[in-house]
Design a protein that fits this description.
The chain is mainly alpha-helical. The chain folds into three domains: 41 residues, no CATH class; 40 residues; 68 residues, Arc Repressor Mutant, subunit A (Orthogonal Bundle), CATH 1.10.10.10. A hairpin with a 2-residue loop joins β2 and β3. The longest helix is centred in the middle third of the chain and has 23 residues. The radius of gyration is 26 Å and the shape is elongated. The two termini are 27 Å apart.
Length: 160
C-alpha cells in the first residue's frame, strides 16, 4: 500500500497522442509532471514492448476472470461495493417488525438461529405458517437499509 492506503490512492493511466510540441501546447505535460516527477516520453520501441506486455496481461486476465474462484471473489467484491454504497438508515427510525428484530440482535455477529430463538414472541399474523421466513425477510430488509451485512448463509453482522 502507498500513502494513506487504497482509499487515498489515485491511479491514472493515460496515453497522450501527438508530438511532444502538441502535448506541450495542450498543457498536459506540465500537469503530468506536477503529478509525478518521473514523467517521460516513450519512444516507439518502448510503446511496442509495452503493447506486447499489455496483450499478454489481457490474455492472462481473461483466463483468470473465467475461473470460478475469481468469478465468486469478484461477485463478493461487487456485493461489498453495493453494501458500502448504501447510506445506513438510522436504527432510531425503525418501526414494526424491523424494530422488533433490531432490538433483539445479539452483539456484533449473529446467526439466523439466534433470531429464531425469539420466534414465539415475534409479532406476526397468528395464522402465519412461516414466521421464520418472515424473520429472514426482515433481516434482508435491514440489510437493504444498510443496517446489517450478510456475511454468508445464515450469518449476519451489524453495520451500525
Amino acid at each position: 500500500m502507498t500513502g494513506g492506503g487504497l482509499a487515498d490512492n489515485v491511479e491514472a493511466n493515460i496515453v497522450l497522442m501527438g508530438t511532444h510540441d502538441e502535448i506541450e501546447e495542450m498543457g498536459f505535460a506540465d500537469v503530468f509532471t506536477a503529478w509525478k516527477s518521473t514523467c517521460f516520453i516513450p519512444n516507439e520501441e518502448y510503446i511496442d514492448a509495452y503493447e506486447f506486455q499489455r496483450k499478454r496481461v489481457v490474455t492472462a486476465s481473461r483466463k483468470i476472470l473465467a475461473e470460478p474462484a475469481t468469478v465468486r471473489a469478484l461477485e463478493e467484491l461487487r456485493q461489498q461495493e453495493r453494501i458500502l454504497a448504501v447510506k445506513p438508515r438510522d436504527p432510531a427510525t425503525l418501526r414494526g417488525q424491523k424494530k422488533w428484530i433490531y432490538d433483539r440482535l445479539p452483539g456484533d455477529a449473529f446467526t439466523d438461529k439466534d433470531i429464531y430463538a425469539h420466534v414465539k414472541d415475534f409479532p406476526t399474523d397468528p395464522k402465519s405458517k412461516t414466521p421464520k421466513a418472515t424473520m429472514r425477510r426482515v433481516l434482508q430488509e435491514l440489510r437493504d437499509d444498510g443496517i446489517l451485512i450478510h456475511l454468508q448463509k445464515g450469518l449476519w453482522k451489524r453495520r451500525v
